[in-house]
C-alpha cells in the first residue's frame, strides 16, 4: 500500500473538501481498472494558518503553521509516515522546499512546477495561468520563469498570468462563474493567445469541466490538483516499488 498525504496549507476545511473531491475522482477512475493500492490522507492547515493564501506573506505564515505538525512524530501527518506528499497550493509554496529539506523526506510534489512542466513540455502549446487576486500575477510570472526550461521554444510558449480580481474563497461562489469564464475568454484566450490555461489556484478545483463546456472546447484546461496528484501517484508508486525491491 502506497501512503500519500495531500496538504491544504490554509485553514479552510471547505477547500480541503473540494480538493478531496477532485482526488477521489482520480482514484475512482484508477480503481475501475486495478485494485486499490493507494491510501490517501488529507490535512488542512492548523490553527495559525491563514484562511486563504493570497500572496508571499500568507504563504510564509501557512508554512510556519503546518511544518511543526508535519514534523511531530506523534501526529498522524508526520512526514515520514508517507511515501509522497502533495502541497496543494498553486505557487512555489515554501512548505514544499521545507519538507524536502527534512531528513529522509519522501517525494514532495508542488502544483506550479508540475503544471508548468506538463504544459510546456508534454502539451507543447501556448499556455497561461488564470489566478485569484491581482497580487499573484507578478509572483506567479516570476515563479513560472524559474520552472521553465532553458529551451527557447518552451519559453516562447509561456504567455503570462491573468487575475480574476477575486479572492481565493470567492472562486467557488457560483455567482462568480460567468465572470471567471469571461475573464479567461477576454484575456487568456483573446489577448494572450493561449491554447492551454492552467487553473492557478486550488480554489478552481473541479471547475475545468464546466469551463470547457462554457467555452466550447476552445482550449485545454489544466487542473493542478488532478495533475499534481497523478504525478505524485506515478512517481511515489515507482519509488516505493523500487525501494521495496532493494530491501
Class by helix and strand content? Answer: alpha/beta
Q: What's the CATH topology name of the largest domain?
A: Rossmann fold
List the total number of helices. 9
Task: Note poorly predicted spans.
Answer: none
Order of helices and strands: EHEHEHEHEHHEHEHEH
* Total discrete domains: 2
Instruction: Supply the CATH class of the largest domain.
Output: Alpha Beta
Could you tell me the mean pLDDT?
Answer: 91
Strand content: 15-25%
End-to-end distance: 16 Å
Let me know the number of strands.
8
Q: How are the strands of the biggest sheet laid out side by side?
A: 2-1-3-4
Q: Identify the overall geometry.
A: globular
Q: How is the biggest beta sheet arranged? A: 4 strands, parallel
Bin the helical content.
Answer: 40-55%
Tell me which CATH architecture of the largest domain applies here: 3-Layer(aba) Sandwich
Give the radius of gyration: 18 Å
Question: How would the blueprint of this fold be written?
Answer:
Layout: E1 2-8, H1 13-31, E2 38-44, H2 56-71, E3 84-87, H3 94-100, E4 107-110, H4 111-123, E5 127-131, H5 135-147, H6 152-156, E6 158-163, H7 177-191, E7 196-199, H8 208-214, E8 220-222, H9 224-246
Parallel strand pairs: 1-2, 1-3, 3-4, 5-6, 5-7, 7-8
Helix pairs in contact: 1-9, 2-3, 4-9
Amino acid at each position: 500500500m502506497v501512503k500519500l498525504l495531500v496538504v491544504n496549507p490554509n485553514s479552510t476545511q471547505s477547500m480541503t473538501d473540494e480538493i478531496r473531491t477532485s482526488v477521489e475522482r482520480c482514484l475512482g477512475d484508477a480503481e475501475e481498472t486495478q485494485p486499490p493500492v493507494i491510501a490517501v490522507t488529507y490535512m488542512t492547515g492548523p490553527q495559525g494558518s491563514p484562511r486563504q493564501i493570497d500572496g508571499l506573506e500568507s504563504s510564509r505564515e501557512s508554512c510556519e503553521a503546518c511544518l511543526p505538525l508535519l514534523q511531530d512524530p506523534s501526529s498522524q501527518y508526520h512526514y515520514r509516515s508517507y511515501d509522497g506528499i502533495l502541497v496543494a497550493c498553486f505557487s512555489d509554496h515554501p512548505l514544499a522546499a521545507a519538507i524536502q529539506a527534512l531528513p529522509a523526506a519522501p517525494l514532495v510534489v508542488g502544483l506550479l512546477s508540475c503544471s508548468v512542466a506538463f504544459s510546456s513540455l508534454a502539451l507543447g502549446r501556448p499556455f497561461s495561468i488564470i489566478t485569484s487576486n491581482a497580487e499573484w500575477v507578478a509572483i506567479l510570472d516570476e515563479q513560472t520563469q524559474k520552472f521553465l526550461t532553458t529551451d527557447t521554444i518552451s519559453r516562447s510558449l509561456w504567455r503570462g498570468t491573468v487575475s480574476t480580481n477575486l479572492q481565493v474563497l470567492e472562486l467557488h461562489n457560483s455567482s462568480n462563474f460567468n465572470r471567471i469564464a469571461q475573464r479567461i475568454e477576454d484575456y487568456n484566450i483573446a489577448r494572450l493567445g493561449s491554447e492551454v490555461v492552467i487553473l492557478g489556484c486550488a480554489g478552481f478545483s473541479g471547475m475545468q469541466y464546466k469551463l470547457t463546456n462554457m467555452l466550447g472546447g476552445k482550449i485545454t484546461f489544466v487542473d493542478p490538483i488532478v495533475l499534481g496528484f497523478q504525478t505524485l501517484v506515478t512517481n511515489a508508486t515507482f519509488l516505493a516499488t523500487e525501494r521495496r525491491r532493494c530491501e
